[in-house]
Amino acid sequence: MAEKLAPERKHSFIHNGQKVFEWDQTLEEVNMYISLPPNVPKKLFYCNIGSKHVEVGIKRSPPYLSHDVTAPVKTDCSFWTIEDDILHITLQKRDKGQTWSSPIMGEGQLDPYTTDLEQKRLMLQRFQEENSGFDFSQAQFNGSCPDPRTFMGGLQSS
């Protein structure tokens, strides 16, 4: 049932008309997807994940992406992989349940309506996690949605 509340689509960060990356999030992590340029050996790509900063590039070249992340991440649980010419970065949220409006600070923010939809989906994921015998995939909120990180005493850390 939890898979019914998984992100339905990826958000895109577009800069100067070009897609920089796509991303989605769950209660525990933010995933970034970067399409890699063709004809560059995969072993030349690198990704450095700090608790407040992420950097992606090709060795011996200026970084493609070097930005602070929206909120701190757990570096011991964050990682990156390359598959099918996509660099996939998984950032483990330090504050489980926090709704991010973008993976990188100050860039490509979701509009308020989409951020609200993300917060509602994360709240339903939280309900599903805490009540695994129930199906919350069709549940809806009337009015504003509470913060999934702090609602009713907050989330238990994983």
UniProtKB/TrEMBL annotation:
One term under GO cellular component: cytoplasm
Gene3D superfamilies given in the database record: 2.60.40.790, Single helix bin
A GO molecular-function annotation: unfolded protein binding
InterPro entries: CS_dom (IPR007052), HSP20-like_chaperone (IPR008978), NudC_fam (IPR037898)
Keywords: Stress response
Cited Pfam families: CS (PF04969)
GO terms under biological process: protein folding; response to stress
Coiled coil (residue ranges): none
Start and end residues of each CS domain: 16-104
Name of the protein in its database record: NudC domain-containing protein 2-like
